[in-house]
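Summary for the steering committee. The consortium agreed at its last meeting that each partner would contribute one worked example illustrating the joint modelling workflow. Our contribution is presented below. We chose a case with several input lines so that the handling of multiple components could be demonstrated. No manual editing was applied between input and output; the record is shown as generated.
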Amino acid sequence: MTGSFVRATRALHRNAGPDVVAMVVGEPEVHVLSGPAAQIWRLLAEEGRIEDVTDEVARVYQRPAEEVRASVEDCVRTLVDRRLAEERP
Amino acid sequence: MTTDGAAMIERATRAVAAFGTAGRAGTVEVDTEEGAAFERRLVREKLTGLAIAASVGGALRLPPSRIDPLLGRHRRAMAWCLMVEQRLLQLDDRFRRAGIDYAVLKGPAMAHVAYPDPSLRAFGDLDILVRGGSFRDACAVLREMGFRRRLAEPRPRFDERFGKAAAHKHAGDSIEVDLHRTLVLGPFGLWLDPGAMLDRATSFELAGRGIGRLDDTDMLISVAMHAVLGWPRRLLPLRDVAQAARSLEVDWPAFVQRAADSRLTAVLLHAFALSTTTLGIEPVAEAAALSASPIARRELLALESYAHRQRGRGGTALSTLRAVPGVREKAAYARALAFPQRGFMRDRYRAGARGAHRHRLAIPARWALRRATRT
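What follows is the complete predicted structure of the assembly.
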């Protein structure tokens, strides 16, 4: 994952306490993002590379960056697959 | 529920509705016993987002066992808001294609424009203002989209001449769209110039698209009218008044002028006063300019007709009749209410249609009787 990532323009969302509720325009599913996924979603308000997101998540959860990187990549890929986020070259 | 419990819920709900403004300060506490009833009230008042913010901000103390249920209710409220916004985007698409000018009132417009985070402002349906001349076309578009009008118009062309709005419900997801020709029922709706509001309309961004809304000054007028003249009375519209006055870029001289032009000065003053007495939120200093405008007796009488007791006795209809211009129009309005067409009666009195005509005719008879007794 070499590009940078940002929330999709077509994604609608709301904060629900610590969680985030999100939907893609034209699709019926409501996605509930909790814990680190909600954190990553909030970070993707601005375009960022995986390294930037990883560093921030590692800082918030006080874990080494290399330990969380795989989970962050996995989460971002899921957001992209669900069209909630998009990759920019 | 005990009297003390009801009072506690009332106090806490008002504190939540005022949270984040310069309103009531301090911390309110809700005990375990009243927790579930309090949550139900928050849902009814669409205040779950502000309740969570108040809880995080230390202004609301909840029993630990009630935190998760409140979060769950707020999640559901937010999911519903997103579904309503999906419908709004579809509606925008269809109205644009049909060349129908519109502006979103309240709900999503307030959430995205007036509140720092739209999650603080829940809504249950869409209120859309269209021009009187497009009303019928807009109804047709909604029908094509799968909405069904809930109540037929009393007589042909009633909507364009005297109507406020027509409620439409989607057959699939039950989302409602209130299609407005004007902002409120009755004289204040007739004195208003909604066309001018649409001429001044602007937009807010949703999913990368510009969605029509009133300009900031008209938004404040609109939420204040709803807070005073809408029914049933809720706390969120009063919060909207305080929120809009503080966060929108209101053109205050224009606000005062538009209020005077539409005979709304008393209504708007009353909205600020209610916000103070109910939520403890003082009006912004700029609103004081309203007090300098003269208020006609006719305005005050019209405002009185929206009060609960009068309203239940056809008071709004009577004051509307007074406000309708010209004898012919007055006669058409009275005829439409006294002798509505069958479709309206079927929708209005679905259960127990027997005696419905008699019941409707008894209302003006009671007016006349009261007047005669007074004389």
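Residues 302 and 319 of chain B are 6 Å apart (CA to CA). Chain B has a mean pLDDT of 90.
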